[in-house]
C-alpha cells in the first residue's frame, strides 16, 4: 500500500467511495476470484511462527527459524530470502501442510474471495513418510472440509517446477489425472525460477495434461528476451498465463483472440521488479486493448498483500468506480479452469446477488 501515491487519487476516492476506508471496505465485500495463488507463498509470518511454536519442543533447531518482522513498508525481494528457507522447512510433513492449508484458505475467505484455484507443488519427504500423492491427497481432504462450510469454493492446481526433469513433470501430471475424479484437482501449472531451464524440455508433460482434460496454466514471460520459451508455451495452448509482464504483442493478441486470460499479480510484479511502478503496470494496456485478465496475489504471505488491496490499487489507478470494479471481478468467472457448469451458475448467482444488494 505504501508504494501507492495515495494523495494523487484522493479526489477520485472521495467522489466514488467516500473515503479510503470505505473504498477498502468495498473491496473486501466485493466477491472475488483468485486464480494465481501459491500455497507456500501465501503462508503468513503469523502462521509460520505458530507452527514453529507447535514444533520446536521436538525439533529445537526450529527456534532459529523464527520469522521476525520482515514486512517493513519498503521491503524488497532480498528481505524475503530467509523466509523461503523457513517455508521449505515448515512444509516438510503432512500435519503442517494441513495446518497451513486451513489457515491460508480461511484468510482468503475472510478477504472476500468466493472462489479460488489454489496451486501447490506436491513434495515428498521420505523421512517423514510424505509422498507426492499423500501431499496432494492431504490438500484435497482439507479443501473438501473447507468447501463443506460454504464460505469459499476451492479447487486445486498441481504445480510443476520449471527445473524438473520430464520424468518428474510426468509424475505430477499423472498424479493430477488420477486425482481429477476427486472433482477438486482441475489442472497443472509450471512455476519456479526462470533460470530453471528451457520449457521445451518439459513441454510434452503439459501436452499430455491437456490431452487428458486437465487445465494448464504457465508462468510466462517474467523476464525479457524469452521469445523462444514464450512461443513454445503458446503452442501448448494454455488455458491461462501468469504474469506475462514481458510478453510480445503478437502473443498478447493471440491470447486475446483465444480468450486466454492473463493472471496479473500487481504487487508481486512490483516487488520482483518486473514492473517499475503501479502507475506503469501493463494492466492499463490490457484495459485499452480488451485483453482478458484476472487480478491475483501470487504470494500474499511473502508480499504482504491481499486480493482486496490489489483491487483497491487497480481501482485507484484506473479510476474505476464501484460498478466497474464489480464488472472486473465478475469477468473472472469466465476464466476458471473448473468446467462444472453448475458451479459457474452458482458463482454468477453470488455476483448477481451482490449487484442487486449493493449497486442498484
Ligand atoms: Zn506465481
Automatic annotation (TrEMBL):
Alphabetical list of Pfam families matching this protein: A_deaminase (PF00962)
Similarity section: Belongs to the metallo-dependent hydrolases superfamily. Adenosine and AMP deaminases family.
Protein name as catalogued: Metallo-dependent hydrolase
Source organism superkingdom: Eukaryota
A GO biological-process term: nucleotide metabolic process
Record keyword S-adenosyl-L-methionine present: no
Catalytic activity: N(6)-methyl-AMP + H2O + H(+) = IMP + methylamine
Adenosine deaminase domain ranges (all copies): 31-349
PANTHER family reported for this sequence: ADENOSINE DEAMINASE (PTHR11409), ADENOSINE DEAMINASE-LIKE PROTEIN (PTHR11409:SF42)
InterPro entries tied to this protein: A_deaminase_dom, Ado/ade_deaminase, Metal_Hydrolase
Cofactor(s) demanded: Zn(2+)
Molecular function GO labels: adenosine deaminase activity; metal ion binding
Keyword NAD: no
Alphabetized UniProt keyword annotations: Hydrolase, Metal-binding, Nucleotide metabolism, Zinc
Organism: Anaeromyces robustus
